Amino acid sequence: xxxxxxxxxxxxxxxxxxxxxxxxxxxxxxxxxxxxxxxxxxxxxxxxxxxxxxxxxxxxxxxxxxxxxxxxxxxxxxxxxxxxxxxxxxxxxxxxxxxxxxxxxxxxxxxxxxxxxxxxxxxxxxxxxxxxxxxxxxxxxxxxxxxxxxxxxxxxxxxxxxxxxxxxxxxxxxxxxxxxxxxxxxxxxxxxxxxxxxxxxxxxxxxxxxxxxxxxxxxxxxxxxxxxxxxxxxxxxxxxxxxxxxxxxxxxxxxxxxxxxxxxxxxxxxxxxxxxxxxxxxxxxxxxxxxxxxxxxxxxxxxxxxxxxxxxxxxxxxxxxxxxxxxxxxxxxxxxxxxxxxxxxxxxxxxxxxxxxxxxxxxxxxxxx
Length: 369
What we know:
Blueprint: H1 8-14, H2 18-24, H3 29-41, E1 49-53, H4 56-60, H5 65-68, H6 74-84, E2 88-92, H7 93-99, E3 109-112, E4 114-115, E5 131-132, H8 136-145, E6 150-157, H9 162-178, E7 183-189, H10 192-197, H11 202-214, E8 219-222, H12 231-239, E9 240-241, E10 244-245, H13 255-261, H14 272-283, E11 290-294, H15 303-316, E12 321-323, H16 326-329, H17 333-347, H18 359-362, H19 365-368
Parallel strand pairs: 1-2, 1-12, 2-3, 3-6, 6-7, 7-8, 8-11, 11-12
Antiparallel strand pairs: 4-5, 9-10
Helix pairs in contact: 6-17, 11-14, 15-17
């Protein structure tokens, strides 16, 4: 069984360093420098990541204008990115193309080359597949010409077209790596089974990260694992019922006990150490992939402490950082910058640094020469 810990020192020590990942995977200089730029030269630094994504209009539709007005427009989000010292700004391909001249060239840019557009209710269209914006080679070339530091794409595991998407993602990763661009995967569960138990349940977040590792992603963004939305359905998925084995037990009999042992008691809040162990499990398949965790649901009545607490959980679990959208840009810029500093301050704590584990990054070449 995977070794889980709530100790930040243990969890950080088990994570892959950029130097080792580059050496073992023979990552070329282009990919290495771009990953270094995002994880070491910008944002919290020292091997940690804080990203600002904006693909809300593609993923959720334009109705956001009734709620956020100007704060959720590309030019305002870019203004926030220019001021906030993020590890990277993530934009859809055509948005990046239209607004490229507003982006400070010092801000690392992730260009997403796919998306989905809502065209009906869940009853009418139960599964929204991500589709690429065009020919893979042309998209990657366009992203490169826009000055992208990485290419982003989304993989929905658990849906009806998962196998087809594996081929699509494979082409994007191969083309991006051929151009020296890191591949950043938005790894989420979707489809009838995940939706029934909770797409952000522990089992599915774990599976999404494992898929990203095997599909060649350099970085994976996944959801913060929440308790199963429907515990009885979750148990059925894991264990089955009567004489029929569950979806998980059928292939791996030991796994259901692992997942269920990490669920909180019914009706009780998740203890801090259990939260950390759950996120630690999610990061565990990513032996050569850097893991960042999404901002999650809309913040509640105490947003500053919520951000501080969830960020500490993520970092104590060993993840490399976070990528937060609407909980940053869905507010006035002044407030968004305050929230950004709160998250950055947690990440910059020395105990989470990776740099001391990477000799090439700590050598003083000027003195040696």
